[in-house]
């Protein structure tokens, strides 16, 4: 299964660390975050990878060029950021008409991707994608989802003051080939996946909750916690 890793962000909340290093390469226990992603994905038989770049793109290019994953990676540099949905839609051909993964690669994730893919295979028939979720200690800073007894999303709460729970969207998705085809037709002009696509699919999104470590490392506090886990 192919995977698109979104890795073009500025990591503004992590400054001054990200003044000189892109967020996707910040070290977790001495290893670049992007390396951890690709290693765990490859262990689950996932690949090849498409990675978008923008901020400090030359560092990402140098890292990939010297890594063991270089033959499995295609880099696309965005002179202007296309947005999470914009990047996906522009590169739909990468998936070759098959289902694939869309990943926000700026989180620290030790989920079991074999279990994730198995959950997707066993999803309710009407669901066109599977979303990875996790329990968060800071629900006000996350997109919180509400699910029914089958694990299907019936509501979203994007960074609200008093969310109804702590089950957070991990921004790691398996997209069915049917959804990828629909994106090309019905969502060809959107730019943001969370705000412009997900809300249109309520009732058709299955969820998989990882019990393993999953942290948004976007703040100094969360980044420090990731390095201690």
Secondary structure layout:
Elements (H helix, E strand, L loop, with lengths): L1 E5 L20 E2 L2 E2 H11 L5 E5 L3 H9 L7 E5 L6 H7 L9 E5 L2 E3 L3 H9 L7 E7 L7 E5 L5 E6 L8 E9 L1 H10 L6 H4 L8 E5 L4 E3 L3 H9 L1
Give structural attributes:
7 helices; 13 strands; Spore Coat Polysaccharide Biosynthesis Protein SpsA, Chain A; alpha/beta; two-stranded antiparallel ribbon
Structure in words:
This protein has 229 residues and is of the alpha/beta class. The protein has one domain (2-228): Alpha-Beta Complex (Spore Coat Polysaccharide Biosynthesis Protein SpsA, Chain A), CATH 3.90.550.10. Helices cover 26% and strands 27% of the residues. The protein contains seven helices and 13 strands. It has helices at residues 33-43, 57-65, 84-90, 113-121, 177-186, 193-196, 220-228; strands at 2-6, 27-28, 31-32, 49-53, 73-77, 100-104, 107-109, 129-135, 143-147, 153-158, 167-175, 205-209, 214-216. Strands 5-4-1-6-11-8-12 form a seven-stranded mixed sheet, sandwiched between helices. It has a two-stranded antiparallel sheet with strand order 2-3. The chain has a two-stranded antiparallel ribbon with strand order 7-13. The chain is globular, with a radius of gyration of 17 Å. The two termini are 29 Å apart.
């Amino acid at each position: 299964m192919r995977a698109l890793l979104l890795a073009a962000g500025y990591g503004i909340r992590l400054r001054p660390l990200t003044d000189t290093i892109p967020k996707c390469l910040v070290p977790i226990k001495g290893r670049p975050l992007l390396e951890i992603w690709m290693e765990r994905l490859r262990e689950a038989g996932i690949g090849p990878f498409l990675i978008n770049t923008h901020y400090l793109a030359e560092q990402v290019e140098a890292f990939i060029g010297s890594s063991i994953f270089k033959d499995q990676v295609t880099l696309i540099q965005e002179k202007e950021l296309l947005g999470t949905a914009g990047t996906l839609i522009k590169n739909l051909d990468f998936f070759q008409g098959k289902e694939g993964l869309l990943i926000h690669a700026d989180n620290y994730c030790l989920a079991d991707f074999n279990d994730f893919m198995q959950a997707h295979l066993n999803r309710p028939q009407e669901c066109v994608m599977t979303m990875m979720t996790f329990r968060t200690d800071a629900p006000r800073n996350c997109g919180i989802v509400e699910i029914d007894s089958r694990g299907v999303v019936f509501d979203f709460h994007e960074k609200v003051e008093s969310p109804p729970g702590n089950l957070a969207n991990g921004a790691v998705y398996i997209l069915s080939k049917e959804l990828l085809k629909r994106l090309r037709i019905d969502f060809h002009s959107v730019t943001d996946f969370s705000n412009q696509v997900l809300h249109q699919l309520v009732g058709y999104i299955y969820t998989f909750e990882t019990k393993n470590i999953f942290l948004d490392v976007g703040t100094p506090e969360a980044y420090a916690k990731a390095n201690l886990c």
